[in-house]
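Write out the 3D structure for:
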Amino acid sequence: MKNSIKITFLALAIAFTAASCDSKKATNGSDTTKTDSAAVATDTTKADTAAAPVDTTKKDTVKK
């Protein structure tokens, strides 16, 4: 049982290695993917302009 699993993983590793190797095919074609310029999302979030609240607590000046 363990050997069949090991052989399966070995076969998958060899298959992925072979698939990822560079091929000698001609690359005369150009990139045919285009971006849709009409679907650009506009950022509608705004920065928080409210000032941070001021700390009104007094510091303890009593020495211990």
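The helical segments are 2-20.
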